[in-house]
Amino acid sequence: MERKLTEYVKLKQNKTVTREELERVLKKAADLIRTRVDYKYILLLLFLKRLSDEWEKEFEGYVEKLVKEGLDRKTAEKIALQDKSAYTIAYPSEYLWRKLREKDIEKLPQNLSEALKKLAELNPNLRGVVDRFDFMEFMLHRDNAEILKQLFELFSGLDLRNASPDVLGDAYEWILRYFAPQKAKEGEVYTPREVIKLLVEILDPRPGEEVYDPALGSGGMLIGSYLHVKEKFGESEAKKLFLYGQEVNPTTYAIAEMNMMIHGIKDAKLAVGDTLLRPAFKEGEKLKRFDVVIANPPWNQDGYGEETLKKAEFREERFKYGYPPNNSADWAWIQHMLASARDNGRIGIVIDNGALFRGGAEKKIRSRIVKEDLLECVILLPEKLFYNTGAPGAIMIFNKAKPKERKGKVLFINASLEYEKHPEVRKLNRLGEKNIEKIVKAYEEFEDVEGFARVVSLDEIKENDFNLNVTLYVFPMEEEEEIDVKAEWEELKKINEELAEIDEKIEEYLRELGY
Predict the structure, then answer these.
(1) DSSP one-letter string for 23-66
(2) Contacts of range 71-77, beta carbons closer than 8 Å, 24 or more positions apart
(3) How far apart are CA 425 and CA 421, in angstroms?
(4) Which whole number is the average pLDDT over 378-400?
(5) DSSP reduced 3-state for 365
(6) 39-75 burial, b for 16+ CB within 10 Å, e for fewer?
(7) What distance in Å separates the CA atoms of residue 30 and residue 147, rounded to the nearest whole number?
């Protein structure tokens, strides 16, 4: 006999999934799919399970409220099912997770696909997000259909109704990070969360500000900004942060939307489209401007030379310093970000190290921007931080309202030695907490630190032909190894004694041989 919805909810409503429990399930899911199924379906199932469980929790809460007001339970359940305004997300009750589990398991791909379409119909903010995926892909291979059944059962064991956004957000990030090495080979870019943390701490977004990422990816920069404000000022103040982002890949955009929601971020404004050609955010007939602009755009992106960018919207406003070469859009992204910042805006970009010193059209753009005194800091990162390249990369910080004491100067930080070995990926490094603290402190103090940081005048940069290569201005000091003279002498004596013994043995062998 089928349990009533409210009875089912009561059985589980006091349980709270732990971070460890969730991670164990995700590891099993990752092991199940290996390379045979796109990892995005793990993200999607986690998202769907969360929405289903959250809706059931809200349903039971509403029913209990109506019962306390004097209604009988049957009537209360009927009203609760009909009143769509009572829920965070309008979820089709006929496709609740437990009901999908009770349906014909052989039709699971069809039922899941129908659930996604219905969700998109009921929630305008999910159109182009959940309905972008189709579980019917699992029907193409018999083995994959079996994988889907096992994945579904794995997630069925999780109760996500009371899971905190922090725990769920960490789970989403775990999946993205786990598959990053594999997806990097296919061209997907994943920015390590430690790099995001460093950039966010330097830019220091605050409640009430608008933060914009023109190369959104899975949303890490915006989520990092939200978590920074939440940690510093509290959750209520974090909700006053306004988040905007644009992503060219529709599937990656969909992941970003789900990533925001799973982190408990409800009001982010995200868009799909080519930022360099058609920026999505406008104010009337002008480009919208923001307090903080932050991004890790694709490095050395092809196809955005002068001929292409002359067809772009707001080209005169955005590319006033010049057009980059067709084989690298780095300085197109930088110019777009500068144009997107308010007159007191702060801009932070993770960029290919070559953008700091390459010649030609890039040098012309670079020199013009440096002359305008917009550049505040350049940070050389350690090598092997990123999954898709072993190159070190750099961070550039621009400030349209540089403090008086920083005008006419640029801080160069050589953080090439600030890393620790990655605990999970053998060939990678990562920024540790102490590394991040040291770099942020150097930025905030804006002073010379021997072998690490140096304040350089614009005149000196001009003398160096506007070369911004960090090693030109500050080179890390090699630590001098202390020598224990006595110990070294004892070791040398020991070696000499061993050599003398060997000589004696050789002479003895030679005598025995008659030499």
Answers:
(1) HHHHHHHHHHHTTTS-THHHHHHHHHHHHHHHHHHHHHHHHHHH
(2) 73/6, 77/4, 77/5, 77/6
(3) 9
(4) 93
(5) helix
(6) bbbbbbbbbbbbbbbbbbbbbbebbbebeeeebeeee
(7) 11
Whether 14 shows a pLDDT value over 80: the answer reads no
Which amino acid makes up residue 259? N
Q: Measuring CA to CA, which residue among 474, 303, 300 is closest to residue 389? A: 300
Q: What is 196-212 written as a DSSP string?
A: HHHHHHHH---TT-EEE
Q: Which of 235, 176, 179, 243 is nearest to 210 (CA)?
A: 243
Query: What six digits make up the tokens of 407?
Result: 């005008």
| CA–CA separation, 258 and 511 (whole Å) | 84
- CATH 1.20.1260.30 is held by the domain 5-178: yes
pLDDT at 486: 67
Find the helix or strand (DSSP H, E) in which 350 lies.
strand 341-351
Encode pLDDT of 427-455 as tens digits: 889 999 999 999 999 999 999 999 999 99
Residue 320's CB is within 10 A of a number of other CB atoms, namely 12
Q: HSE (CB half, 13 Å, CA atoms) of 81? A: 13
C-alpha–C-alpha distance, residues 119 and 111, integer Å = 12
Report whether pLDDT(8) > 70: no
Does 400 have pLDDT greater than 90? yes
The structural domains of the chain, with segments of one domain joined by +, span: 5-178, 192-472, 483-515
Give the separation between CA 229 and CA 233, rounded to whole angstroms. 6
Q: CA-CA distance, 499 to 507, in Å (whole number)?
A: 12
Cβ–Cβ < 8 Å for 470, 452 = no
Residues 449 and 442: beta-carbon distance below 8 Å = yes
End-to-end Cα distance, the chain: 102
How far, in Å, CA of 119 to CA of 89, rounded? 9
Q: What is the pTM of this model?
A: 0.86
State the Cα–Cα distance between residues 215 and 37, nearest whole angstrom.
26
Q: What is the CATH number of domain 192-472?
A: 3.40.50.150
Which pLDDT score, from 0 to 100, does residue 4 have?
A: 47
CA dihedral 31, 34, 39, 44 (to 10 degrees): -50
Mean pLDDT (whole number) for 283-297: 95
| Look-up of token digits 């700091």 | 356
Tell me what pLDDT residue 134 has. 86
Q: Please give the structure tokens belonging to residue 511.
A: 């005598």
Say how far apart CA 329 and CA 331 lie, in whole Å: 6
